Amino acid sequence: MSTTNATVLVDSWTMTRRELAHWQRQPVQVVVGLLFPVMLLVMFGYLMGAGRGVEGEYIGFLVPGMLALTMVFGLESTMLSVTQDLGKGVIDRFRSMPMAPSAVLVGRSAADMLQSALSLVVMIVVGFALGWRWDGGATALLGAMGLLLLLRFSMLWLGIHLAMVAGKPELVQAVQILVWPIGFFSNAFATPGSMPDWLGAAVEWNPLSATAAAVRDMAGVPGQLSGSFAAEHAYQLAVAWPVVLIALFFPLAVRRFRGLSH
Questions:
Q1: CA separation for the pair 117, 149 (Å, rounded)
Q2: C-alpha distances in angstroms, 167 versus 29, 68, 89, 160?
Q3: Which of 36, 33, 66, 249 is nearest to 144 (CA)?
Q4: Would you give the distance in Å from CA 251 to the centre of its chain?
Q5: pLDDT by residue (tens digit) across 82-100?
Q6: How many CB atoms lie within 10 A of CB 256?
Q7: I need a labelling partner for 205 at 20 to 30 A (CA). Which of 35, 93, 184, 214 fits?
Q8: CA triplet 209, 213, 217: central angle to 5 degrees?
Q9: Separation of alpha carbons 110 and 255, rounded Å
Q10: What is the pTM of this model?
């Protein structure tokens, strides 16, 4: 490993530890972030009844959809952290230090990915408590978590870029609305076949829908990979969509960060 790469790793780990230290000072925010998707899972699983167009037990359909939805929600905490650092001049101070410039963004993203992995574990445990079962085997479960975290990683860089475009914490709520359609116009709660044709077609091409369909198939939920082209190629789209988003928003975020005034 070259000296430059080693420096980037060391600096990135330092920034990651900084973000983790914020967890200790703001435990309520961390707990709320973990419990919010659990609340949605219980609400849709028990209070709102079965989803439209779902065959068999709804919980088997719902939990994989909620796992994918969890990877899209919760970006506001990362976006707020970035804008707060911008507003307080923290990033400017970091940029003046002898450290790799990319370490600031890498550290922030690493902390977010750790919390996202923890959220997945919490959701899976709650799903089992609600009666959901994974019938795809341990290898398939690891593969599903890999797809879910890949989706999160892509959404994370979209969020970081939007945060730097917003620039101020008070604008984050307005900007994050751009992410909501990915979460709500999806197959997380109901099948695209139960929707109007135009809406169902759009939903099937949603990045979240591709990941949810692939995870459901890995879990042994029948009928996930049949019908439209998007449904039959859910695995390919579950990889292709995040790769495209990362290829687009990662360089945009880095370029925006480099262009910040000192």
A1: 7
A2: 21, 28, 11, 10
A3: 66
A4: 18
A5: 777 777 766 667 666 666 6
A6: 18
A7: 35
A8: 170
A9: 19
A10: 0.82
